[in-house]
Amino acid sequence: MNRFDEVMRRAMDLATCAQKQADVPVGALLLAPRSENLAPIGVRNADIFTGEGALASAGEGAPTSESDSPPYLGDWEIIGRGFNQRETFPFDPTAHAEIMALRQGARRLGTWRLTGTTLVVNLEPCTMCAGALVNARVSRVVFGAWDDKAGAAGSVRDVLRDSRLNHRIEVIGGVLEQECSAQLKDFFARRR
Description:
alpha/beta, 192 residues, five-stranded mixed β-sheet
């Protein structure tokens, strides 16, 4: 059992929220070392998934905000959550799960520099998300399924570890790979 298995399952739960909105089921969690200086999340569910605080259209099944992280996280806590929301108003092409989690984490920490954080996502990040992760100075990315068409963490390209960039990210791929792949394949099979 990988130390990120339980967190990946939570990312997969978030992915289900995207699927309920007819979007590709991708969910992401941003983790940071526990700190007494962090204010509790304490925001409405809608604020977790949108930048403007508008009502999230996920409806039932959307995760609730919580100030305490589950015990299996140890010295880490969840500071950002996100799932794909491109298919809902305002139809934002950048509303990928990773971007949504980064936005919430940055608000929570009060800085765009997310050094020391770990992003857990059920699908290998695309080039846009990988670029955002590098620019945010995220320290580690953990993902489930490899994306052999658009992945930018080692499959098609490797933006996260590109030595030409100003920051490189530790990458752990394939966590619960079969389960994550099955969730995505099931979504696309139903769509056809």
